[in-house]
């Protein structure tokens, strides 16, 4: 076919009229025993919508496809767009996030080639690539636009996937409150619809559960976990069940129930080991390896093996913060094995991965370097790392994770011999956990009399 320029945005009738003129045909040349010239005139003026059989007959006479008349896209262009979309999605699955982003972004610059479903898929893939490239704010902007689309039906798979991604991205960006609000509203909407529980619903609940855990709301996270486990078991989907066990393990770990956490994470690993989501598998192995370093009888060699396996997977599908967290785990494992130089190298790599941005992983890396120096007896160098970690941690908003890091720095300051800094860190840990300091009654009395 010889496609016309600037016709993809015109109506069906206008496309027929323009193409007929280009072919040098009159309305009666398109007529037949089933289609009158007057009917063609009504179609061209937009006063009648042809049936599929009439559309196919007109397309044959005009030497084009019915799809071209219907949408302005010829079959060749449409097939090329489908192939480009499939290529972008495949690149995303294979961990080629930059290539996926470029392919999908270029495709979205030609919206006339995409139908509604293809556009949503391309935008969702674009957001996923941005998230994996650690461009979280840009991913949120795309997801917010998708989530506000009035044609996105609540309860549909696309709607659930968008809600999950938005909840996760706000959490990773540090806005845990908004992450929880989005997750809770989405769960309430699903409950109000009275739909059967699906894998997508379970994944939404698991994401919300992770946000509860990060905020330090362990009771609510545990309750959500119990509810989700029943639903996930009924679904029978291994990946969904694995996600719930994974998050339940993280909650148990935060409660200090390390043996229970180990059992839950082992169960999650068994369920998700056959899944094709390499990122989930990598994160599970990283968490499992880290747990092996924290139990009453640590297994640093086995933990290191799992962390190395996670590192290999994250090199393909992970982002910089995830890789940094894995390097910190490897540093801890090597330190427990007495391999100080290797441990320090891992911690330095973690710092390099965090870059110039303020990330909680940078605090952990500096804490690990301080701990290594303490083990070596280099107290002055340890103090330098601790001072840098303390300055950086002050920039973060209160959360359960921040409280844990303040407690960690307090313990390190105590070992370093600086009791004053240790007490400050412990005080900040309590504040970050939501425990306000008790006000001195004598101070209230003094203020009252001054007024």
UniProtKB/TrEMBL annotation:
Leader sequence segment: none
Organism: Streptomyces prunicolor
Repeat positions for TPR: 403-436
CDD domains for this protein: HTH_XRE
Domain of life per record: Bacteria
Keywords (A to Z) from UniProt: Cytoplasm, Repeat, TPR repeat
Pfam families: HTH_3, TPR_16, TPR_21
Keyword Cytoplasm attached: yes
Principal cellular location given in the protein's record: cytoplasm
The name this protein goes by in its record: Helix-turn-helix domain-containing protein
Residues annotated as domain HTH cro/C1-type: 16-69
InterPro entries: Bac_ResReg_Asp_Phosphatase, Cro/C1-type_HTH, Lambda_DNA-bd_dom_sf, SecYEG/CpoB_TPR, TPR-like_helical_dom_sf, TPR_rpt
Subcellular location: Cytoplasm
The keyword Cytoplasm belongs to this UniProt entry's keyword annotation: yes
Recorded family membership: Belongs to the Rap family.
């Amino acid at each position: 076919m010889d496609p016309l320029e600037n016709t993809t945005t015109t109506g069906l009738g206008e496309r027929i009229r323009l193409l007929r003129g280009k072919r040098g045909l009159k309305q009666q040349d398109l007529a037949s025993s089933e289609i009158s010239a007057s009917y063609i005139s009504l179609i061209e003026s937009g006063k009648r919508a042809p049936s599929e059989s009439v559309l196919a007959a007109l397309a044959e006479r005009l030497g084009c496809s019915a799809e071209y008349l219907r949408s302005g896209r010829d079959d060749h262009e449409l097939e090329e767009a489908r192939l480009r979309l499939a290529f972008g999605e495949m690149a995303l699955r294979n961990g080629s996030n930059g290539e996926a982003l470029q392919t999908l972004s270029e495709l979205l610059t030609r919206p006339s080639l995409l139908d509604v479903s293809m556009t949503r898929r391309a935008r969702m893939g674009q957001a996923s690539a941005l998230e994996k490239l650690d461009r979280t704010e840009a991913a949120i902007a795309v997801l917010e636009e998708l989530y506000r689309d009035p044609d996105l039906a609540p309860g549909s798979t696309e709607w659930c996937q968008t809600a999950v991604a938005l909840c996760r991205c706000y959490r990773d960006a540090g806005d845990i409150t908004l992450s929880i609000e989005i997750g809770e509203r989405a769960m309430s909407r699903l409950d109000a619809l009275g739909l059967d529980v699906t894998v997508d619903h379970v994944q939404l609940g698991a994401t919300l559960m992770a946000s509860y855990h990060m905020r330090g709301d362990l009771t609510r996270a545990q309750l959500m976990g119990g509810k989700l486990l029943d639903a996930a078991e009924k679904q029978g989907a291994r990946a969904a069940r694995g996600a719930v066990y994974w998050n339940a393990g993280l909650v148990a770990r935060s409660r200090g129930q390390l043996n229970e956490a180990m059992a839950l994470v082992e169960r999650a690993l068994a369920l998700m080991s056959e899944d094709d989501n390499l990122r989930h598998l990598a994160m599970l192995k990283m968490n499992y390896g880290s747990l092996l370093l924290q139990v009453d009888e640590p297994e640093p060699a086995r933990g290191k093996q799992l962390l190395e396996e996670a590192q290999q997977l994250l090199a393909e599908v992970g982002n910089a913060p995830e890789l940094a967290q894995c390097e910190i785990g490897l540093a801890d494992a090597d330190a427990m094995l007495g391999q100080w130089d290797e441990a320090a190298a891992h911690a330095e790599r973690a710092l390099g991965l965090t870059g110039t941005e303020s990330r909680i992983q940078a605090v952990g890396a500096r804490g690990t370097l301080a701990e290594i120096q303490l083990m070596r007896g280099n107290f002055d160098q340890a103090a330098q790392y601790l001072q840098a970690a303390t300055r950086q941690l002050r920039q973060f908003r209160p959360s359960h994770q921040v409280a844990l890091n303040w407690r960690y720095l307090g313990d390190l300051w105590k070992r370093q011999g600086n009791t004053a800094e240790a007490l400050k860190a412990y005080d900040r840990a309590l504040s970050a956990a939501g425990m306000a300091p008790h006000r001195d009654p004598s101070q209230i009395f003094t203020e009252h009399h001054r007024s």
